[in-house]
Design brief:
Layout: H1 2-22, H2 27-45, E1 50-58, E2 68-74, E3 82-84, E4 87-91, E5 95-102, H3 107-119, E6 127-132, H4 138-143, H5 148-156, E7 158-160, H6 168-176
Parallel strand pairs: 1-4, 5-6, 6-7
Antiparallel strand pairs: 1-2, 2-5, 3-4
Helix pairs in contact: 1-2
Length: 177
């Protein structure tokens, strides 16, 4: 099984490297393409009972999240409340996981991502993940945190960095089986 996960990790890394080799000077485009590569990868490797999209989450009280890079939601039990092309609005109770994708990271960007996850208080049962590609290693990111509560949140969120943690793909897949 580990050979399989190593193989699919290499597949993902290859696709991400293609983005970087073709587009070298426009970070917003690199970010959008990286998000799409990861979404497509997850659609291929996760069970069909979940959908992988980009979009927004709406809470029971009507509060709308900011745009989410990757939403994984239960599409067997819930339909999107709104869809246009590949952007959806889904009810908070349908969300299984939310992934923020970062191709560059700094202390400020990292803290904004963690603050964003904490602000999604209405996603009580959903997992939050930070996919960091081609950036600092997890230990360095953890050392940027000065607050104990934030360090606890970091440890409860899986930091996915395929150059350092290729087994996280296996952990993510197991979560959905």
């Amino acid at each position: 099984m580990s050979k399989y996960f190593e193989s699919v990790s290499q597949e993902l890394l290859g696709k991400l490297a293609q983005v970087r080799s073709h587009i070298t000077r426009h970070n917003p485009t690199i970010g959008v393409l990286t998000e799409e590569v990861v979404r497509e990868f997850l659609r291929t490797h996760l069970p069909k009972r979940v959908s992988v999209e980009q979009g927004f989450v709406i809470a029971a009280d009507g509060e709308l999240s900011r745009q989410c890079d990757i939403l994984i939601y239960d599409s067997q039990m819930y339909a999107p409340l709104y869809r246009i092309n590949d952007i959806v609005i889904v009810p908070s109770e349908s969300v299984i996981a939310l992934i923020e994708v970062k191709t560059t990271i700094s202390r400020a960007i990292f803290h904004r991502a963690i603050d964003y996850f904490k602000a999604l208080r209405y996603l009580e049962n959903a997992k939050t993940y930070l996919f960091i590609f081609n950036s600092k290693k997890y230990g360095k990111l953890e050392s940027t945190s000065t607050h104990t509560s934030m360090k606890a949140h970091i440890k409860s969120s899986i930091m996915i960095h395929f150059n350092v943690y290729p087994t996280k793909l296996q952990e993510l897949k197991v979560h959905f089986i």
